[in-house]
Amino acid sequence: MREKGRKLSYHDQLVIIFVGVALVVSAFAILAGVLGERYVKAAEEHANQSLEEVSSYMLSSRIGEIETLVDYLSTNGTVLDWLESPIGSSDYYYNGLLVYQELVRRTPVLGSDSYNIALARQEEASFIITSGGTFGKDDFLAYVTPGLDSLPEDGGIALSRDDGLLVLTTRRFLSGNVLTVYCTIPVASLSLPGDASIQFAFVDEYSGHIASPCSDFAQALLQVDLKAVPEGHSKVAGYSIRKEYYPYFGFSALFTHHTGVTWPMMLIVLAVPVVISLSLLVGYKIQKRLYRPVKKAYETLADDGDGAKGTNEFDTIIDKCLEADRIRGRLASLTAELQNATDVQKYRSYLRGQDSLYRAEDDSEAYFCLAILAPVDEDTQTSLFLKMNSMSRRERHLHFIITDKGSGVLIYKSATAEGCYDYLYQTLRSFTALDEENGLQAAISPSAQGWRQLPQLFRLAMEIMDCRYLLGDRIILTQGDIVGHTNLMHYPISEERKLVNAALSGSQGTLAIFDQIVRENSAPERLLQEKEMCAFASALASTLMRIFQEMREDDGQIDWSALRDGRPPFEVIARLRAILSAYIERRSSASAARYDYIVDEMKSYIKAHYSEPIQLIDLSEEFNLSPKYCSEVFNRLSGENFKNYLNRFRINEAQRRIEEDPQIKVATLAQEVGFTSANTFIRVFDRYMGVTPGQYAETVREKN
Q1: Membrane-spanning regions, if any (predicted)?
Q2: What is d(CA 422, CA 348) in angstroms, rounded to the nearest whole number?
Q3: Is 151:145 a contact under the CB 8 Å cutoff?
């Protein structure tokens, strides 16, 4: 909150400000009356010179921009293709459309409000292309440059009869073709707004033609050999002029600035008391009108007891507005969170085949399609689930659900069956393409009408996912992929994850999990053929190979390819069980003391490198562990995952530095504690501390 109890209220400040302004204005009026006569001539001379230079620059800058654009268009492939296209052919109109699009793209960048560019071919039947459309040559003359009898064809300049437009023409001979470029510049843009005292004339250097909206100035220039007039400032025919030559278009521009302003001393002296009186009167009226709404708002807000006599009114109003804005933002965030939680609860009920209190009116008529996501490890799963959850919050009918068994389910709702399936499939393609190297797989169900079909769609997607080892390297599995596989093995993602986690932790129950999976697939009622049993054995081999890779214990002595190919499936399964049993026994007999020190070493590494963009892969390489096993060790021995610990350490360090220096810049602090983005730092700081870094620094300053 802002500091309360200031000595001067806002009303008192307004009175002081406007009285002060009135006195300052009056003082300047008196000073102007005393010094005006002395400096008026010098000021006029300086103003004339400055205005001439400014006006000249206003044209020069536009000519420079136009030259750059004309040079670009003269070498542009699209323009060259249009020039070479036969008139009336499809290429002629198609390339003309491309040229029009090029003009639309280029002209606004260079200031289309100040001039316009048009392109024409030499042939009479050719149309003229501008950023505003295409015209025949007669139409272009009538609509684009009104007030001209004809366009200068061979280069040069022209001025419309109403003196509103200056037309510049240049020709380019490109690969045997002639490109004529017209540029129209509003004459009004060549002078300062509201200043009609600037006079100018344009002289064609080849023909000697003079175009000027000022007839007196033009007549005076006719009496002079303008080619002998040098560039820059000079005196010509009683005029003080500035000449600029533009060889690109072959013309010269002459500017002059005549003013007859004089400040009689007596008039200024008489005006001084009038200025003082008007200043005081206007100041009083303005401050009264300004304070009226502020007073009303302040009195309304002060009725709740927060206001106090003598308090600056705007401080109270601003504090109330900031408080209301914070409440509004929080309500919006809570509303979004509530809606998301409601949708999650609703679709979890749907997946269990239960109705929901939050069911929408069209849930029974709409079409649904769902997909199950299967990342290969916990780190990939966390990242993927966060991305999916973030995307679902932006798309109204896309919902991401984590089921009771830990599976990630993406559900899309649509008015049509085709649109429902196609949208979800394309969404999965974009995400699985990003995670393809990590072995991510997804199983998508067909679309079905009504929320009651969701349990069946979920079961179908799980059946499709169970065939992932039968389908090679396919990323997105569909119902069509499992056609012909009537007897499916039972090896869901949840069972595989349970086996991997148990093995990585060295649990004695690992073999029991392995045996249960084998018994399930060996049951007579499942009726697995030899082909399916071979695929099941290959899946188990892949799981064990993954476990050994995570632990970095595979020394190359195990020929995994031989285990998966060429042997009877039950022999392969027995061999895999023996390998797993030996591994568990080896893990159990190993001394746990080897890892007693490792968390302290990891924390020391984080403390030494937290200001760098370190990741889990850096920690795993430092301690010669796989990223998966490194994460598992860090979690098990520290009680917190690596990312959370690193962020918390960085935020604690940032908190300490803010307390030492509350004036430190947020961007500087973010870089010093290891964040590559100030926005990311602010978001993480707010998540851990409940306030932004700026708000925390303000609290520290108030305490100090």
Answers
A1: 12-35, 263-286
A2: 23
A3: yes
Nearest 5°: the CA angle 561, 563, 569 is 130
Residue 375 CB-half CA count within 13 A: 23
**How many Cα atoms occupy the beta-carbon half-sphere of 66 within 13 Å?**
27
Q: What is the pLDDT of residues 256-299, one digit of tens each?
A: 765 444 444 555 556 666 767 777 777 677 766 776 777 777 67
Q: Residue 257 CA to chain centroid, in angstroms?
A: 48
For the residues of 204-234, what is the DSSP string, one character each? Answer: ETTT--EE-S-HHHHHHHHTS-GGGSPSEEE
10 Å Cβ neighbour count for 96?
Answer: 21
In this structure, the chain runs to a length of 704
The predicted pLDDT at position 307 comes to 47
Q: Give, to the nearest 10 degrees, the angle between helix 678-689 and helix 693-703.
A: 60
* Lookup: tokens for 581: 């049993």
Residues 267, 282: Cα–Cα separation, whole Å: 22
Cα angle vertex 626, ends 620, 632, to 5°? Answer: 85
**The residue type at 438:** N
pLDDT digits (tens, 9 = 90+) for 45-89: 665 565 566 555 667 777 888 888 888 888 888 888 888 888 888
Distances (CA, A) of 601 to 608, 628, 630, 638, 674: 11, 18, 12, 12, 20
pTM metric for this prediction = 0.37
Side-chain half-sphere exposure of 393, counting CA atoms within 13 A: 13
The residues, ordered by sequence, that sit 6+ positions from 495 with a Cβ below 8 Å of its Cβ are 513, 517
